Amino acid sequence: MELPEKEDVMDKNSLHKQMPVLLTKSRFRRALECPTKLYYGEQPNYANQSLEDDFLAELARGGFQVGALAKCYFSNGEDLSDLDTGAALVRTRELLHQDNVTIFEAAFQYDQLLVRVDILVKDGARYHLIEVKAKGWDSASDRFLNKKKSGILSKWEPYLCDVAFQKVVLEKALDTGNIDSYLMLANKQARAATDGLNSKFRVTMDSGMVLVSGDLSDEDLANELLIKVDVDEPVNFIRTKCDYHGQSFESYIATVADALQKGKRLRGSIGAVCKKCEFCCTTEDEALGRLSGYRECWKEALGWLDKDFKDPSVLEIANFRNADELLAQGKAKLIDIEEADINPASDGKRGLSNSQRQWLQIIKVQKEDGSPDLFIDELREEMDRWTYPLHFIDFETITAALPFTRGRHPYEGVAFQFSHHVVQEDGAVAHAHQFLDTTPGHFPSFDFIRKLKEALDSDNGTIFRYSTHENSILNLIHRQLRDSELSDKDVHELCTFIESISHSTKGSEREWRGPRDMVDMLELVKRYAYYPATKGSNSIKYVLPAVLSDSAFLQEKYAQPIYGATGGIPSHNFTDWQWIQCKDGQVQDPYRLLPRMFEDMPENIEELLSESDSLANGGAALAAYAKIQSTDMGDYERQELRKALLKYCELDTLAMVMIFEAWQEVVRG
Description:
By secondary structure, the protein is of the alpha/beta class. It folds into four domains: about 220 residues, Lambda Exonuclease, Chain A, CATH 3.90.320; about 100 residues, no CATH class; about 140 residues, no CATH class; about 140 residues, no CATH class. It is about 40% helix and about 15% strand. The protein has a six-stranded mixed beta sheet with strand order 1-2-3-4-5-8, sandwiched between helices. Strands 12-11-10-13-14 form a five-stranded mixed beta sheet, with helices on both faces. The longest helix is centred in the C-terminal third of the chain and has 34 residues. The relative contact order is 0.10. It holds the Pfam family DUF2779. This is DUF2779 domain-containing protein.
């Protein structure tokens, strides 16, 4: 189970006064990522931006519910999760006197090593170590080793290392090699047997504990949505063939345990991995006097001073895979990079290729040029092909570990919200439609697509999205419709609509490209517009503030409270709203003008919960939907969260409109 990890909570509160600090699974995982992180993680004076133990992140992944469901598949298991580690160690030893027993959160300590095992099954002299993870598994296509069986696939390695660490401790603590290891994962090929299964695992707000409904029935559990996957082969591969920071797996465990015990700072290597380092300071952290582990590492490795961090580094180059090579050559800053290091070349398409865009980013820094570059002729040609009225849409979706309705698969996508702005040929803008269905236990995707059809079917205007996400979701709903119990007429009408505004993706039973196939504004940004203020990012969360700061037209228009005003721009969620607000002479990011969805939500939750630059691939909206579906909350709080979701999604499509308006103004000259 992903979170919370009770061994860390225990060590930091009570046990650290009674015994040496022990190496737990989460601490070792941190040391695997980077040796120096082990030290920073134990020092309260270092800033830590990690969401690893954050309630919202785990709620969005479904980890709490998956962990609770896993226990339902094992009868008569004794749950030690409420016990602190000392008591759990004692109770585990007592239970293991039995020949056959199942224990949840069994505790084992060997020397300086400590683990809590999600599920331990003792069957005579044999033990089954089961680690539960909120991650999907498709037995038809997934595997742990690469095709040549020469290495572990990177997406699985952290999970397998968790199991390997636990297996090492259990073998030593139990003095036996009779341990079989498993991952228990969400079975993507399984289907929920009943409606409302998700809602029968309610997550409490304060602790993340799951309240399992008394109405949970044998029928609910008839189709096992979790699958136990044997991982002995990849775990043995890790223990015998893999190298971790220059050592074997078990040697590295010993090194890390010793360093933790002595409070020693292990030295890691700087590189691309530093880009996601959580031990960096925000402005608020600096004001509070917290230290930056990230800066300490780079100062030590490169001899940098504080002033050096003002210069953009190679880690900021967008979609760049050779940062480690440049760092090895002593080229840490963009001002150090030469054209040959990037080798910018055309990919045969109009506008900027990826490498050309990277080089443009670098030379802008080297020339201290903060002005944007727009390919005006290419944008004009694109615009000449568009048909008015223009439609801008954004979807919010979730992939739930436990399905909300019968017949759905674990982690099957659910479309629960969209926003829709319209721009007329005369320039009139309106927030025309929106949809949000957060009804607990209800599958909203078919109602979603019906409402989207109503919103877009009245004309043949060009439709815009931002990234591939919307097209992928439409393909998913297309498959869901054909597999549904809806009438043939309903399925045909809705599938025909989907085919008219999208194109088929890889693996589709047949190919199509609709006459109104959506235009991807993200691709237009990548090809025809570069804003230095985005620091290479193409996410709309970065592009919008850059466009607003550059466009005098937008600043003049939206500095007035015309949005949602009588006689102004119609809006479903805003009244007399002024989007352009300045602070210290700088245009503020519109997203930061909105109310935060959660009081305890970090400023960087969008980055930490998203899987890519795609706006719709997660973030606060995903966490909010999961929270509404899976937690006990009052009607007032639920309504406030719904209002926030509606405002955020409306801004997502307005952002697209604003980018279009800025480009149109430039093209018109």
